[in-house]
Amino acid sequence: xxxTILHQSSNGFxxxxxxxxxxxxxxxTCTAIxxxxxxxxxxxxxxxxxxxxxxxxxxxxxxxxxxxxxxKDIICSALVIYYFRIFERRxxxxxxxxxxxxxxxTATMLEICVILLLKFFDVxxxxxxxxxxxxxxxxxxxxxxxFFDIPRISATYFCxxxxxxxxxxxxxxxxxxxxxxxxxxxxxCGIAAGLLYRYNFLxxxxxxxxxxxxxxxxxxxxxxxxLSSEPKYRQMGxxxxxxxxEQADIWEQQYAYNHTPDFRQARGQGFAERLVDxxxxxxxxxxxxxxxxxxLGNSEPSPENVSILVEMGFEQxxxxxxxxxxxxxxxxxxxxxxxx
Length: 340
Prior knowledge:
By secondary structure, the protein is mainly alpha-helical. The chain is 63% helix and 3% strand. A two-stranded antiparallel sheet has the order 1-2. Strand 1 and strand 2 form a beta hairpin. Helix 8 crosses helix 10. The radius of gyration is 24 Å and the shape is globular. The protein starts with a helix and ends with a helix. The relative contact order is 0.10. Pfam families: UBA (PF00627). Its main location: membrane.
């Protein structure tokens, strides 16, 4: 199971310092509460609602949100966060941090409302009056984006049921949520928070953001510890696992490409004609020359196309070279870069 998740990309935590710090803080806090000398810190995990809001101990909520009690939840959460680092690469670290801040705050507020509601109707046998320790408000909102934005890659079939790399990730989330009734409700609140954030309920994406000054300050203080160097080598797809890894990376690049403004403008009524050859008698050579156009000379790439490819994660020099080779055609240049 772990190998399937870890084979999704060979880039480690490159361009994902927030996910790296999240996993590190999770392991540090868990280790701290299990060391005999620091066992007294476990009492700070208890966040009884509503007393924690009425006293000056609201800081306990932060500690409560960053710590799991059970080891299996820590391991499963680390694997899920490691795979979900693709969202940080797409959004950027500051925007991803804003997403975590907004979704976790929303999930915590929803969970507190659920506790108060159950307490009002005197059904505390289902759910206690304490916040469940764990990163449910960070992890499960990401499942909303994972469900809507990450395409499914078929891997194998069992009794006619397709099992893909997404299936493994869903099973890990189910394992985290199924510890108890309290963890299940916390997970549901996390998913609801992800939906509210995705559809920008009450303009949450604008008023719950990490300021740019805070982002730069964190980068200066913790950057040396969290930043990872760019990988020097890419593995060749000589095995099935690595081929699946490369396919997942291609899906990731295609997702970014599909969400660029120029691509959405080009995706119209005539887009299918460019994908399907309507003149089969020309042969492969004729189709190639039609795709390249009448002007076979290399034209200078436009700054707009270069900017789009750079935003997708490609190096500027490689993007310019690919656009020159494809006669400044954005689709062909993207295909060239994906095959490199």
